[in-house]
Design a protein that fits this description.
39% of the residues lie in helices and 15% in strands. The protein is α/β, with parallel strands linked by helices and 251 residues long.
Length: 251
Amino acid sequence: MPLKKKFRLISAHARHEPQRPEVFAHSAGPDFEITEIKLESGAVSIESAFDEVLSSPGIVARAIEAEHEGMHAVIIDCMGDPGLYAAREAVNIPVLGPGEISMHVAAMLGHQFSVVTVMDRLRPILENHARVYGVFDKLASVRAVEMPVLDIDDHLDELTRRLIEESVQSVRHDKADVIVLGCTGFMGCADAIAAGLAAQGLHVPVIDPIPTAILIGGALVDAKLSHSPRCYPAVPRKPMIGFHAVPASKT
């Protein structure tokens, strides 16, 4: 029997204990063993570049720990992919950003895609990510439900209504062929959004970033592929003042 693929999901939000293993198991299937870990410091939600910077050192440290513990891959639980490139420099195993993966998958599935996120203030960040990831020409729009991350769990019905509304506008007015859920806090909403679109005669794929990242990561592990060391070379060994909690990285 093949060994299970061991993935470490790093929550970029330093606010709660891991609580979604059953959701991951349903999304990934029996071939995966997924553990989740939160950060010990940083912002309680990621809604700005400032928040991303605060979370990045902890994400890199947790990625290094994951490799030392024998994980096959790391997934950053945040659509903004904080610390993605830095973590790739620090470890040899695949480090996956749900923002990068979902945008590339969306670009394959349609001529244009729209991202529906939490707050409009994130629009410049997501548009810049699309440029860096090389898919900006495929981006039809970034729309927002104007609901802070910390309010999501308490307003799921209202969240679903707003996601459907903005997704409909993305398809009808922005000419999107694919919808990307622009916050990993929306995980599990994709089926409801697709159904809401279909009820209005709009049949388009709706991408849930975390499950998509897990499955793409599994394909990379099966194919024995990881990021190129020419692009992400090992971090030069030098003193890191104030970051003694970060373990030694790859050689």
